[in-house]
Amino acid sequence: MQFFLEVLIGGLLSGVMYSFVALGFVLIYKASGVFNFAQGAMVFFAALTFVGILELGVPFWIALVLAFGAMVLLGIGTERIVLRPMVNQPPIALFMATIGLTFFVEGLAQAMWGASVRGLDLGIQDEPIEWMMEATGIGVSKFDLFAAGVAAVLVTALALFFQYTRVGRALRAVADDHQAALSIGIPLQTIWRIVWAVAGFVALVAGLIWGARNGVQFALTFTALKALPVLILGGFTSVPGAIVGGLIIGSSEKLAEVYLGAYVGGGIDSWFPYVMALAFLLIRPEGLFGEKHIDRV
Amino acid sequence: MQLKTKLLLSAVAVSSVLTSSAVLAQASEQFIGLPSYRVGAYAAGGSGIYGGWIDYMALVNERDGGVNGVKLTWEECETEYNNARGVECYERLKSKGASGNTVFQPLSTGITYSVLDKVAQDKIPMVTIGYGRTDASDGRVFPWVFPMLTNYWSQNTAKIKFIGAKEGGMDKLKGKKIVNIYHDSAYGKETIPLLDAQAKKYGFTVVHIPVSHPGNEQQSQWLRVRQEKPDWVILRGWGVMNPTAIKAAAKVGFPRDKMVGVWWSGAEEDTIPAGDAAKGFIAAGFNVAGANYPVVKAIQDNVYKKNKGNMEDKARIGSVYYNRGVVHGIITVEAIRTAQAKFGKGKVMNGEQMRWGFENLAIDSKRLKELGAEGFMPDLKVTCLDHEGSGKVKFQQWDGKQWKVLTDWIDADKELVRPMIEESAAKYAKEKNITPRDCSKEG
Amino acid sequence: MLYREAGQFKATYAADQQIFPIRQDRIGIQLLLALAFVAVPLFASEYWLKAIMVPFLVFSLAALGLNILTGYAGQLSLGSAAFMAVGAFASYNFMLRIDGMPLLVAFALGGLMAALVGIAFGLPSLRIKGFYLAVATLAAQFFIVWLLTKVGWFSNDSSSGVITAQEMVILGYRFDSPQAKYLLVLSIVAVMALMAKNMVRSSVGRAWMAVRDMDVAAEVIGIRIMYTKLLAFAVSSFYCGVAGALYAFAYLGTVEPEGFNLDLSFKILFMIIIGGVGSISGAFLGSAFIVLLPIFLDVLVQDVFAGLLSPSIASNMQLMVFGGLIIFFLIVEPHGLARLWQIAKEKLRLWPFPH
């Protein structure tokens, strides 16, 4: 039982890690209907830029601001150069454009900062909490708890932002109906820029957390692969869905690897999340929190 | 229409460049094609290894004026670590230079497999140092392939010897438990049969736990490790899997100085991201880290002082990957020297002559000292039967800042490995209808 | 003027139903085939045949398969590489385990195995659509590669999990020279491309397009959605499977499961989007673009700009230019290269009197 709990808690916490990346996808999909495959590359770019600036001897907070600035620039540039000329193209063409963007951003990041792998220390140790370990025998990492805390703050901030600010309301209007939003005078392009900047910020946070965990290196782009099933499960358009999806995927993946993996030779966490998301989809084709879609002839 | 013209123009440009480049060759220069990779997830290793290798060849050109007067030239071809791109690079580099490409070293097991048949047809030796096809160590079946210095199986037996020594003798291994955490791929799986054989031989138990690619999440695997309570963990990782594993070990409280990695888990790139958690982690290596070896110093004096170095990040000179590249350079240049000694000093060697050079390559400790690489890499002697040539590794420990050498060269358990290699090579020979060479007739 | 269909009258049903009803097209395709079958093997260097033409053809076939599924039937797939892997490993095992198995039959059986797997992973498409469906094919992608790595039987228990394709022998003739390999691949690809061309203009193809454009409407007019979608998955996977077998047998020789990774799937998706979604010629144009462009960039960087840029910047620049060009093409011509050809045809119809 204790072992089961430990696996479950570990899984839930790593699910939070997946949610970070999934959040970025959701933001952009919600506002512009683009499935932004470059989110993983943006995570990598953000983290590498931050560490690169840090290496130049810039203090932590200023580096953070500068890295955020770089992400805003990237977001605005993407809106201006990629998305604006492609308005009204089919979703698959936009999706492809973001894959092109992925290559570009990956190349840009490594051309600017080099290919070497860097460490990143946020000052929080990735070690189990001792008193908990002693009392219950269950190890819960301080760092993972910290990450969960950051996720909670981030989601709350985003929810408040969407709910109570002018920009947030405009954003929801754009998500509902581009045409209607335009006709009541909401500047679509400004909104898109803001969304890409916010997605850039989320990528930066995700990059810092993942980078501190596994090192700042190219593999950060792979985090996008873990975010996909989360996204499918939670629905492309739901912020809470990204969190709940992350928790479900994270925990079930770990439980499956531990309890099922042993029977089939292990390593099943490469495909298990996808199969699970698939099983969910067969019951609810629009994800847990996605908006129901009605087909009309 | 404009676009179409542009398309046409670029198509013309491709074909003209592709055909013209073969003509630009110059005589009395030894051409070495470098199928390198400097982008993406593999860039960290690629830029270090190819950097060190190119720097060593530049050193030979700058300091010695080439090999007996024959200058070395090289050209890179970006493979992105992709098999199809690797094949294209192989074909492109093949016909370049005065005598075509004379040695192919893809630094990727996948590309090694993809060009395995081609090198024999084209008579270009393929050298794979510390990766590639293990059973190619049997030179009778694979005359054109040289998996030099040491292969994964040899490395693994040396590792068990090291663990045995730490436990106070091989007999103390009885009843111990070793967990093998491996990258769930062809590369990762390769040592499983050998570990099983060794477990039987020495009486320890071994538990294999796979980590699926890329391995940036290993919570469940390491919780299993904690459940198993092993005495040692063997880490057979790649890329981000390594720092993640080290961190996850810290998380479940497994001592890092009981973790032993393969050489693709034992570079600065694997430990630095893990921070303090990596302190004490041990890894095998056929080359050591450190910039204070005469050969590395010579590169700095002769190449970097003239601003001809290949590394952009000079801090990486002397890192594990960089030094591995220097080892690649040393072996390549010494093979040219060996071939020239037989086929004519100061001449450009062709692929067949280079093959002879590799097959008769012998770098003893005296020669290593002359090269300024004493203790830097193991001595080796390649023969027709044995294309591996050495099988020795050293173990290094990460002290939080840099790698510290723990042991002297540890030999592989050849008695165990060799029959397995021969068995596997014979199976391949049968599948492909190859009649193994008779080595007593080779000279 | 040059390309004018006016004045070409059809007197029989057969003439009206041929694959290329316009004479200029017929001549064009015959010239193209003559060029591919005669001129290329005669004049192309070994490098061009081995390193460019063969992979170009193999990827064209895979792109053709994906285009049937995504371009004609409208089902987005990110698992093409996995179906290629099924084809490669199945063909290998048929050759290995059945004595005297003819090569072409092994390829066809490999394609059939891929088709069966494709149907299995296509089942969710009956309920899931769009990007959500992409996850089903992603599941196929990861699961199949995992299975091929995990079960030793598929690779004949080789310790490293790789397979070495058998020699290609048909009726005693060995296809081992670059020319022979190229011609074999070309023949298979040409036949299958013509089959595809024929299929998409038949009732099957029309049903696919109806489902693509609006599946509810298609159902209303009496098209059996389940049958149509699954058929698209089966045919598409068959094409990918044969492409995979050719990839292993005629191109690489030795393949490992990891070689058929998500990157390869994406590459094939690129091909159809750059080439033109829902177009047979688009698959070929896209494949040419995606195969040649990185090589062209690399040659440009290594030969022309050698020494001007530091090596890592040079390599990363290639990646950036590659990504940038993809975006550029999508912006300039979102319907792909095949659309450029259509525009050219329009111009030729009027040339030399454009007004």
Describe the overall structure.
The complex is a heterotrimer of chains A (297), B (443) and C (355). Chain A has 297 residues and is an all-alpha fold. Chain A has one domain (12-220). Helices cover 74% and strands 0% of the residues of chain A. The longest helix of chain A is centred in the N-terminal third of the chain and has 31 residues, at 2-32. The radius of gyration of chain A is 20 Å and the shape is globular. The termini of chain A are far apart. The mean pLDDT of chain A is 86. Chain B is built from 15 helices and 13 strands. Chain B has helices at residues 2-20, 43-64, 83-94, 109-122, 152-167, 186-189, 192-202, 219-228, 241-251, 268-271, 294-304, 320-343, 351-359, 365-370, 414-432; strands at 29-34, 71-76, 126-127, 145-146, 177-183, 205-211, 232-236, 259-261, 282-285, 362-363, 380-381, 394-398, 403-405. In chain B, helix 2 packs across helix 12 and helix 3 runs parallel beside helix 4. Mean pLDDT of chain B is 86; it is low at 17-26. Chain C has 355 residues and is mainly α. Chain C has 14 helices and 4 strands. In chain C, strand 2 (169-170) and strand 3 form a beta hairpin. In chain C, helix 7 (178-200) packs antiparallel against helix 10. The longest helix of chain C has 28 residues, at 225-252. The model of chain C has no long low-confidence stretch (mean pLDDT 88). Chains B and C meet through helix 1, helix 2, helix 3, helix 4 and helix 6 of B and helix 3, helix 6, strand 4, helix 12 and helix 13 of C.
* Beta-strand percent range of chain C: under 5%
Query: Helix count of chain B?
Result: 15
Distance from N terminus to C terminus of chain C (CA atoms, Å) equals 12 Å
What is the topology, as strand order, of the major beta sheet of chain C?
Answer: 1-4
Pfam family, one (chain A): BPD_transp_2
Transmembrane segments (chain A): 6-27, 60-82, 94-113, 143-162, 191-210, 230-250, 262-283
Subcellular location (chain A): Cell membrane
Organism (chain A): Azospira restricta
Short description:
With 297 residues, chain A is an all-alpha fold. Helix content of chain A is 74%, strand content 0%.
